[in-house]
């Protein structure tokens, strides 16, 4: 059975800004292939000057004791729920075993600083199968910024998928922000239809490069309409809604509306209008100012009757309660070594986790702007 966490974002993906700053060896195939968002491919008898070209990371054959390693910077830091070590097309040259460690670091560390980091195991040394997706659950409630893949002793890995829940740094969410953005903690809860592509694309970073980077539904043959339900990163007041139909030309929705509510998602009476049903144009970024000062936690986008949307941006300001939520979640999830560096207050760090009804300690309350 496929684990539920595979539907969560791949925090390591290049599409979310992930990178591979270091590997000790990449003789046969480049380390950057590990985080490509698309599935791995293979073409027979495609040889370069170092042999068969592989869509993955492949090291040379070891002739001495040791292991090979690659460090991945997560595009979006977060709590890792599961890891996939995909050895697709590596059959006689896959590593027989692998492990994964993680760390949480401030700022933008160099490779030298990464080498000195405190690494924590999240996947113990485990056997791998060749030409297969090797799936591993992760039991950790910490927010990680980097992972390190170790293969024993050498070989090739096509992709490393690191699925989890994004946890934004609230220090970077001052003022008006995109409350729907995946990187800020926005989450897709449900959608009426996911036939062509996933609605998570709606809240991914950057502009869509092609139609497939958005959310597109099947053609409706009834009187209904399609919709997607989101949980915002935090409670806030939305001031601008951006509905982007870029690349959708003959298949954009004709109209759309946006509504919001607090916690009572299942109560029809708790929903209220943020943007009334409005005509849309194909292949266009639509930006609408909203004149609603009621805070929301959940948002529903309705498209009429069906079609594709590239991105949904909901710019707004977190309420005091929303900002407190962001601070607690981030503070509770920080690895102890990173939290100590940030706050220089071991007593506050050791007192975690903070419950929702606890007042914020001074080390956190001073971050509220």
**How many domains would you count in the coordinates?**
2
Radius of gyration: 22 Å
CATH architecture grouping of the largest domain: Sandwich
| Spatial gap, N to C terminus | 45 Å
Return the CATH topology of the largest domain. Answer: Jelly Rolls
Q: CATH superfamily assignment of the largest domain?
A: Galactose-binding domain-like
Helical coverage, percent range: under 10%
Structural class: mainly beta
Question: What oligomeric state do these chains adopt?
Answer: single chain
Number of helix segments?
5
How does the major sheet shape up? 8 strands, antiparallel
Proportion of beta-strand residues: 35-45%
Mean pLDDT: 93
Query: What general form does the structure show?
Result: globular
Q: How many β-strand stretches?
A: 21
Uncertain runs are none
Could you please describe the fold and organization of this structure?
The chain has 369 residues and is mainly beta. It has two domains: 4-166, Jelly Rolls (Sandwich), CATH 2.60.120; 171-318, Galactose-binding domain-like (Jelly Rolls, Sandwich). It is 10% helix and 37% strand. The protein has five helices and 21 strands. Strands 12, 13, 15, 16, 17, 18, 19 and 21 form an eight-stranded antiparallel β-sheet that branches. Strands 1, 5, 6, 7, 8, 9 and 11 form a seven-stranded antiparallel β-sheet that branches. Strands 2-3 form a two-stranded antiparallel sheet. A hairpin with a 2-residue loop joins strand 2 and strand 3 (51-52). The radius of gyration is 22 Å and the shape is globular.
